[in-house]
Design goal:
This protein has about 625 residues and is mainly β. The chain has one domain: TonB-dependent receptor, beta-barrel domain (Maltoporin, Chain A). The protein contains 5 helices and 38 strands. The strands form 6 sheets. It has a 22-stranded antiparallel barrel. A 5-stranded mixed β-sheet has the order 3-8-9-6-7. A hairpin with a 7-residue loop joins strand 32 and strand 33. It is globular and about 65 Å long. About 45% of the residues are buried.
Amino acid sequence: MALAKSSYRSGLSVSGLTVFLSVLLPLSAFASSDQSSSDRTESQDPIVVTATLGPKTVGESLSSVTVIGRDSIRQQQPAELKGLLDAQPGLSVISNGGYGKQTSVFARGTGSESTILLVDGVRLKSATSGGAPWMYVPPQLIDRVEIVRGSRSVLYGADAVGGVVQVFTPRAGTGNDGWVEAGAGNLNTQQVGAGVSTQQGANRFSLNGNHFVTDGTNVRAGGADKGYRSTAGSASVSHEFSRGGEARMVILRNEGNTQFEGGNTDFVAQILGLSLKTRPGDNWTSRVQFSEARDQQSTESPAYGPSQFDTRTRTARWENTLTSGTHELVIGAEHRTDEVDGSIAFDQTSRTNTALFGQSFLNWGPTHVQLGLRADDNEAYGRQETGAVALGQDIDQQHRVRMSYRTSFRAPTFNDLYYPFENYGGFSYSGNPDLKPEKAGAFEVGVRGQYQHGFWDLALYQNDIDNLIVIAYSGTTSQPTNVERARIRGAELSGGLTWADWTVKAGVSVIDPRDRDSDRRLARRTGKTFRLDVDRSLGSWNLGGSVRAEGYRYDDKANTTRLPGYGTLDLHSVWHIAPHWQGALKLNNVLDKRYQTGIGYDSSTFAPFEYLAVGRTVFLSLRYDLK
């Protein structure tokens, strides 16, 4: 496939945001026709749990939230999780090449280490690098995604500076169910999956598996194809108690191999969660969760030799929810232990964090108040306090204004603090045990219109970050340090409309992630994103497409290495062939753009090269559902 560097330049701007708003406002009038106050549909104002720990609608959460449900996931048929996240409002995704390659998610201009990934309430991350293994979360085993933008340190502690993404694995419904799916496409891509679930009285059980393999494409110009193989499974077992409590166990495991420029990596990504929810009183719900998350990567590289990183995070968490009328109080405690092992001799191989947190929800008619406070005590970097206050005011039955201020912090990773001095072909790196956590304060104001057939949401925000952790270079030596400050300003506008056989969702973001000392843009952050998803039902057919676009970005701190913006078009269709049977066809990157979102360095010469995204792909699948 020929290399064709994209000449696309994003045309999004503040004026473009104004145009988008001028389109959505007339649609809101159309969407609100024949509307009653109780006519909210799940698809337009869904229930979310990530923003507040308890079930509330998106509007009630007083947060900027995007929900991607099961139907949307099945219609889009993503091969990777990044296909669902890319260019969603406030999000930008960077990947070092094709399928299964290193992936970073930037939320509201913050770094990838500042965006938390939860799987069924269990945090999945690498304690060494700080980032989540986004590329190893199989979308074929996901039923739902909740994206909460903005700080959430009060609820989730360190690193929730830019936001939180939570994915949910399948849970058993009523009765017996099952599915089998198989598909194939170009690049010698093959996929097969199956699952069963059952309910027997108060007991529920779900078991699902998926295998995905591809030869992949070249990740650099003139390079060889780099493949990816993944075998994943998820399971959940639950028992419901008569008073509304529940005991549940959930597990997700994905293991396989990914090839990259200069070697290959065997990986394991796994979470295990055990939870018990009880109702000690009519107005008191208590939930205890014990969990373990594991990120293991074993790499073979001819240039650097073998290496292994094995990180585990064990967490015990206790949440209590007390209600009085329309008011609610949540108080809880959490204890987390991070452990690292492998071929690198870190000075410290474990650290613990203990936290107490609380938040209240107060409602007086059209006025809503949320307050939160958290105290973390970490043996590596001491005590940190974070807080949050949010106000909401209903203008009428369809419109609400919200305002919030939240503080947060990002913890230095094991690599940041303890990585031993190492020399790579004349370039050296080492950790800095004197690092302080990043501290941030974010202000946001938003307004939302919620109607029977649609919604729109506008948010403006500013996030000021102190003690920003960056890599400082001195000749051929590099080390992380706290020397810079950042200010991130942005605006997001999203909207959706469901009418007759049509479903339309769109989102645009304008971001200014600025280094306040140098007045340069923060590295690897784009300034503009746009996404449009359109689907239509035609009898036994469902047809749809997605347009995604991002503006240019700089790959370096000095803003000298500029990567151009790009736009892609994806198309998908589902044919309900017969009862229980459906076929699906998807064409990704229809215009075959080989665009770039990151820079790599040759393992032997250290010469830079551009990572190439996957070009046009075609995938055909057949699925059988018992129900």
